[in-house]
Design goal:
By secondary structure, this protein is an alpha+beta fold. Helix content is 42%, strand content 23%. The protein has 9 helices and 7 strands. The strands form 2 sheets. A 5-stranded mixed beta sheet has the order 5-2-3-6-7, with helices on both faces. The protein has a two-stranded antiparallel sheet with strand order 1-4. The protein is globular, with a radius of gyration of 20 Å. Bound molecules: zinc ion. Zinc ion binds next to loops.
Length: 212
Amino acid sequence: MNAFARPLTRLKPSEAERQTEAISEEDVEAAIRTILLWIGEDPERDGLKETPSRLMRAFQEYFSGYRQDPALILTKTFEETDGYDEMVVLRRILFQSHCEHHFAPIIGHAWIAYIPKHRVVGISKLARLVEAYAKRLQIQERMTAQIANTIEAVLKPQGVGVVIKATHHCMTARGIKKEGADLVTSRMLGCFRDNALTRQEFLSMVHQDHHK
Ligand SMILES: [Zn+2]
C-alpha cells in the first residue's frame, strides 16, 4: 500500500493524490538507484544494496505529514473548561523538518500559546499538529503560519501565538556555512496581535526558555 495514500477523512482524491497513488515503492527505489548511479556509485555493492529501500522508508517517515489532516487533529476538544480564559502555552516542542529547496534538515523548537474562548484541546494534539506540518517539505515561515492559522480556524480562540526557532542545515552545512545560526519566526493572531501585554507575556516565556 502506498504510504502517502490520502487521509481517510476526504473521499475524493485530488489530482496530486491520484498521481501519488499510482507510484509504487518499487518506483521510488528505482529512482534512488538512479541517483546512486548518477553520483558515481555502484548500487549493487554490499553497503548500498539495501539503501534504496531504507531511504524510501526514511522518506515515508520524514514526509508522513502529507497523510495527516491537521485540522482533524484539533477537532476533538474539551468544552467544559469552567470559563478558563487564561493563556495556554506549550513550550519547546522539538521538531525535525526538511527544507523544500534542498531536502536539508530543519531542526528546532516551537512554542504555541492560545487563549481559549470556549474550547481547549489536549496538549498532545498541539504537538501532533506541529508534527503534521513538520513532516513535509517546508519553509519555516510557512510552517509557522500554518500552525497558527489551523489553531485559529479550528479552536476559534481569542488569540494564538506561534514562535519557531530552528537551525537550517542548508545554511550550516552548505552554501554560506554559518554554523549555529537560528532562524526565528512568529505569527500572532487575535489578542496576541492586538494586545501588546499578551504578546509580551508569551514572548518573555519563549525568551526564558531560550536562555536555559
Ligand atoms: Zn534549503
